[in-house]
Each structure stands twice: as C-alpha cells, then as structure tokens.
Amino acid sequence: MTRLLICRHGQTGWNADGRIQGQTDIALSEVGHAQAEKAGDLLAAQHPDVLVASDLQRATQTAAAIAAATGLTVTTDPRLRERGYGPWEGLTDDELAQRYPTEFACWRAGEPVRVDGVEELAEVSGRMSAALLDAAGRAPGGTVVVVTHGGAARRGVGALLGWPDGVASTLGSLANCHWSELRRGRAGWRLIAHNLGA
C-alpha cells in the first residue's frame, strides 16, 4: 500500500504577517527552520522512501531539514508550487478586501476567482494531481513525503480523492510543517489523517 505524506512548508515572514505568497519565492523564518527540523524528526519515524518538494525555497528548505533527518535526497518538482496569485501576492487580507472586494469575498467562500494573473483552481488541481501521482510512482508500496504549500496541498488531496472544488475547499488548512496522509489500495486513494504534526 503506497503512502503519501503531503506536508506544508515551515513558516515564513509573510505567513506571520498574513501576506499572500503564491509563487513569490520567500525563505523560511527562524521559526520556520525550527518547525522544519521538528517535522524532519517526526517524518523520519515514518521511514519514508522518497522525498519530493516544490522548487520554491520555503519548500526546499523544509525538505532539506527532512532530508537531514532521513538521509534521503530531495527531488524538486515545480508542479508542486503554490497557486499563482499574480497581483494578489504580497497583499494582506485587509488590502485584498479593499482593492478586490467582490473577488476577495468569492475567494474566502471557496468560489472561483476571476482575476488576471490568478491561477485557475482546475489548473492547480491538475498539476498537483499529476505531480503527486508521479511522486507516488517513485516508491510503489512505499512511503513518499511531498513538501508543498497549503493551498496546493488542499487541491492535490481533493484531486486524488476525486472531490469537486466545493468539497476540496472545506478541507481545513494545513498548519506549517503539518501533513495529510493518503494511502492507495485496491479501492484507490483514501484520506487517512489530516493536519498531523506537532
């Protein structure tokens, strides 16, 4: 039975400030580095066989800490990046609500957002599903750790489980350096646990 542990990266300064990161390449904060080290120890106890990460540095830095704890080599995949938010990146919720009130309300409600430069949910789901399936294929019957981003993780989990966007949107946000566990058996993928970590 193949296990996928889909982990969110550690905290960044923009996380702490409540800023939309999207695909802006922000490094981990000191808190984020400490979270990554702790996650590395916890994930090492899961005896993973493969470690794959988004190529954005907050994910690769998190994956490096996991690699140090597990002895695995990190493979990066740009398809695991966060949803692209274009002109929204770097803004806080208050700034978004002022500049894009209608679109922001739709986004908060989990509805589609039509703003030039903001990636469509179907595109995120499609690339995340493909990346997760490729990662899982690297260790059939083994355990694969994937380090990605909060919104991307939600869409990836939903896509593998066959959930429509409205259902995927109800999945709670992953805390920094927490993960979802999916297992693939004869009946396909199943969500075993969500928001694991310490």
TrEMBL record:
Pfam families referenced in this protein's UniProt entry, alphabetically: His_Phos_1 (PF00300)
GO biological process: fructose 2,6-bisphosphate metabolic process
Binding site for substrate: R8, H9, G10, Q11, T12, G13, W14, N15, R58, E82, R83, G84, Y85
GO CC list: cytoplasm
MF term (GO), any: ATP binding
InterPro entries in the record: 6Pfruct_kin, His_Pase_superF_clade-1, His_PPase_superfam, PG/BPGM_mutase_AS, PGM_Phosphatase
Active site positions, chain numbering: H9 (tele-phosphohistidine intermediate), E82 (proton donor/acceptor)
Origin superkingdom: Bacteria
Name of protein: Fructose 1,6-bisphosphatase
Annotated organism of origin: Actinocatenispora thailandica
